[in-house]
Amino acid sequence: MQAGTAGAPSDDALLTADAVSLAFGGVKALTEVGFTVRRGELFSIIGPNGAGKTSMVNCISGRYSPTAGRILYKGRDITRLKPSARAELGLGRTFQNLALFAHMSVLDNIMVGRHHLLKNNVLTGALWWLGGARQEELSHRRAVEEIIDFLEIQHVRRALAGTLSYGLRKRVELARAIALRPDLILLDEPMAGMNLEEKEDMARFIVDLNAEWGMTVIMIEHDMGVVMDISHRVMVLDFGRKIAEGEPEAVLADPHVRRAYLGEVDEEAAA
User: Fold this and answer.
1) DSSP-derived pairing of the beta strands 241-246 and 13-24
2) Burial group, residue 172, by CB count within 10 angstroms (0-12, 13-18, 19+)
3) Are 134 and 194 within one domain?
4) Is the pLDDT of residue 36 over 90?
5) Do residues 159 and 106 lie in contact, with contact meaning Cβ atoms separated by under 8 Å?
6) Based on the domain organization, do 187 and 175 belong to the same domain?
């Protein structure tokens, strides 16, 4: 399943990281990392453990504030904006570790993702029976049901999130992230811990989000088969520095990437 076959991304820059650095005390997590993600692109970030991938995503989402550099989203500097403000601008994310409300139903977990789209206030709440808040809730419920159908989780829609299998919980977390209908979604290892069938399903959902729902995707993923199959472009980090960026085939063929990520030894150097 090739992402590129669904239509190439535009030349319009949606997000730009400009020389982003991040340090925790004396430890440098990122050093002057720069890249641009185009609107409509499925962009993957790869690298060995500890390379700075999640740190980069955390800087984009607002969980971390860069030590230096800046992040532009839709042409606006969002470097110091709070995560909630970035969500309101159309930026969503999932987490490497599941962050669902275990004692809430699948339906209610997804409704949480609609929070930033709610326009109801005290006045419209008082006019509930005249159609204000009630109509708004019905609209959001319809949007959630569309997501449930898309991710094929109708059979667990009323189940408690904490009772689901790991693969289904990953789908629910994705559902909650896309409930905001973000223009850009950050996926932190969406297929980690899944079996082959679950990975194939998740890859299909991500490609469809990009191609059919028009969401730009930045994805961290360790499965090179998935990365090669669905990404438009790939960036490689190693020890917090960017060592390669480009189309998947070209990046994978880069000797620096093969040494850093795949652990291959340069035969000439070894000789």
Assistant:
1) unpaired
2) buried
3) no
4) yes
5) yes
6) no
